[in-house]
């Protein structure tokens, strides 16, 4: 995070702590008492959820219940995932909404195939980098607010693409539960309430620089954030979703509603036209899978997302037996952190919209992973890792606010879905009468014209949000996701290591203390010149022992302890036994979520 904070700290609207010092200002209510005991398993984790006929795990209990209701009413996992995602856009607006983008991996039991969908939007087709730079008026990076970082929202189109291919119930039926909750109200959950309050403080500090008036009317009409337990309604969003459910995809992208959004954005300085929305399309892509050990394979989506970073980490870590050390040891953490830093050196150099820059094929090979592994010094942190020698300034790794959900139905269809507005609740702009905020994902473009991720017309920016899927012995095994900017690939790998190398169950694997390494070269920085923060900072949770922390510092790592869980993501997972069909689910103790089945 240091690389980002050095450049645009005054502009950032994220509602997430940027340092251990800020986290320390929020004392834990559990300081006077420890956890209880358990008859089985780790004392710091509750039991995973076990069911047979269907299961959902989301960041809000009501969204989980909506997904189960859809399954019980004859819908499949895709229908239920769409319904739950719509609900989360209402109930968890601090993490997602229809103003953002969506990525998903779907396992289809009818064909035995994995399908990936890239539902990310593009920049305005009629705006060049030079024209954008003129609007930035000397700024070295895109801001996280206002019209300039907005890209076309891709979520609604992705819903309809998924539904057309796999859905069973009508879209109107899938969106109806959220329409009802938006009109009748729902109570604000604890963690979401905290994020809403922080978001209001952050946006209010800069609202003289962008139009925050419509967002205030939607979420903060009384001058304050909704309190925990307060019944919240969003009638504008109800109308928007009802129209989309009734009239289809074009109601959002090619209609009078589109004209209203475009007119508003143009008034705020955007170059978007109706054609930018009408021409938008999601893309079906092929997930890539990399073997780890003991028959486990991790599967991720290709760029413009950062999913392949997790696969590169796996290819590096398969060259060492982590289980020879305890899970919380300095040795195990050192290898995982250095693998992350090596992978992200390549992320910063090569990852971009593949329509504009091809990804080197060597990145996911075993041989390249072994070569990168040889760069790790077992005894100390390497001051800086360069990207691999492969021919071909805002920060990637800020805690982008995101939601991840997963649904598995009784037939074995498995959906791993992630959706986000990026930083904060988005860019702060809400078109009148729509009830949702536009994303600020374009903040992740580089302004260096030589960079593969450089801003160009009709281009998708580098993306942080990634769903994951795990195979075991070639068979579908588990959906997996973990929210939060650059935390996501390293979080996927930490959970996989917990399960494979240390034998944890799904809930233990998510509840175990995590690290979040932040820093290094960024995909928004210029290709030439030194990285702003080459070593970065290793943030750890209190479950990492003081002995381990001191040993890591002796090895050269810059370590800080953060005790509020915010920057370490939000995890959900469902595993399916291929022989019995029994489902095991887990959710995130750091969020308000729920895993449930029937």
TrEMBL record:
It catalyses: an N-terminal (5-L-glutamyl)-[peptide] + an alpha-amino acid = 5-L-glutamyl amino acid + an N-terminal L-alpha-aminoacyl-[peptide]; an S-substituted glutathione + H2O = an S-substituted L-cysteinylglycine + L-glutamate; glutathione + H2O = L-cysteinylglycine + L-glutamate. Cleaved by autocatalysis into a large and a small subunit. Keywords: Acyltransferase, Glutathione biosynthesis, Hydrolase, Signal, Transferase, Zymogen. GO terms for biological process: glutathione biosynthetic process; glutathione catabolic process. It comes from the Bacteria. Coiled coil: none annotated. Its EC number is 2.3.2.2, 3.4.19.13. Pathway: Sulfur metabolism; glutathione metabolism. This is Glutathione hydrolase proenzyme. It comes from Qipengyuania flava. The gene is ggt_2.
């Amino acid at each position: 995070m240091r690389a980002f904070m050095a450049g645009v700290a005054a502009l950032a609207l994220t509602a997430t702590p940027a340092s251990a010092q800020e986290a320390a200002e929020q004392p834990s209510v559990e300081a006077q008492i420890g956890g209880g005991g358990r008859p089985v398993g780790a004392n710091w984790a509750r039991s995973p959820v076990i069911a047979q006929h269907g299961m959902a795990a989301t960041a809000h209990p009501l969204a989980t219940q909506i997904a189960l209701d859809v399954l019980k009413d004859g819908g499949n996992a895709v229908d239920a995932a769409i319904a739950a995602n719509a609900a989360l856009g209402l109930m968890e607006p601090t993490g997602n909404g229809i103003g953002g983008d969506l990525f998903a991996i779907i396992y289809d039991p009818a064909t035995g195939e994995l399908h990936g969908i890239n539902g990310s939007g593009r920049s305005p087709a009629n705006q060049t980098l030079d024209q954008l730079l003129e609007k930035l008026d000397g700024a070295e990076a895109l801001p996280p607010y206002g019209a300039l970082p907005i890209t076309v929202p891709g979520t609604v189109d992705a819903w309809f693409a998924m539904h057309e291919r796999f859905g069973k119930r009508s879209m109107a039926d899938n969106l109806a539960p959220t329409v009802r909750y938006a009109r009748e109200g729902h109570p604000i959950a604890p963690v979401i309430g905290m994020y809403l309050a922080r978001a209001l403080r952050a946006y209010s500090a800069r609202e003289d620089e962008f139009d925050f008036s419509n967002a205030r009317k939607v979420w903060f009409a009384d001058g304050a954030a909704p309190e925990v337990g307060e019944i919240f309604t969003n009638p504008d969003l109800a109308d928007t979703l009802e129209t989309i459910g009734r009239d289809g995809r074009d109601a959002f992208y090619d209609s009078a509603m589109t004209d209203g959004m475009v007119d508003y954005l143009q008034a705020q300085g955007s170059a978007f036209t109706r054609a930018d929305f009408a021409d938008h399309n999601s893309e079906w892509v092929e997930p890539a899978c990399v073997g780890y050990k003991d028959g486990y394979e991790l599967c991720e989506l290709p760029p413009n997302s950062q999913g392949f970073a997790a696969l590169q980490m796996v290819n590096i870590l398969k060259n060492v037996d982590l289980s020879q050390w305890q899970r919380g040891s300095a040795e195990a953490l050192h290898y995982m952190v250095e693998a992350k830093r090596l992978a992200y050196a390549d992320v910063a150099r090569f990852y971009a919209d593949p329509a504009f820059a091809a990804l080197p094929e060597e990145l996911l090979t075993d041989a390249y992973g072994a070569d990168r592994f040889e760069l790790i010094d077992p005894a100390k942190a390497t001051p800086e890792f360069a990207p691999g020698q492969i021919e071909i300034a805002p920060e990637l790794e800020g805690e982008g606010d995101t939601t991840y959900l997963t649904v598995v139905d009784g037939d074995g269809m498995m959906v791993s879905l992630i959706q986000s507005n990026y930083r904060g609740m988005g860019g702060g702009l809400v078109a009148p009468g729509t009830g949702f905020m536009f994303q600020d994902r374009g903040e992740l473009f580089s302004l260096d014209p030589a960079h593969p991720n450089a801003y160009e017309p009709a281009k998708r920016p580098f993306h942080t949000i990634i769903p994951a899927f795990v195979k075991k012995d070639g068979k579908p095994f588990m959906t997996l996701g973990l929210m939060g900017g650059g935390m996501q690939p390293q979080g996927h790998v930490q959970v996989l290591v917990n399960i494979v190398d240390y034998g944890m169950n799904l809930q233990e694997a998510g509840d175990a203390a995590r690290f979040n390494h932040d820093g290094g070269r960024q995909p928004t920085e210029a290709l030439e010149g030194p990285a702003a923060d080459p070593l970065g900072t290793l943030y750890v949770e209190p479950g990492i022992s003081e002995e381990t922390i001191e040993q890591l510092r002796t090895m050269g790592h810059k370590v800080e302890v953060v005790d509020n869980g915010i920057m370490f993501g939000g995890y959900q997972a469902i595993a399916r036994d291929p022989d019995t069909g029994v489902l095991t689910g887990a959710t995130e103790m750091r969020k308000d979520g729920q895993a449930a089945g029937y």
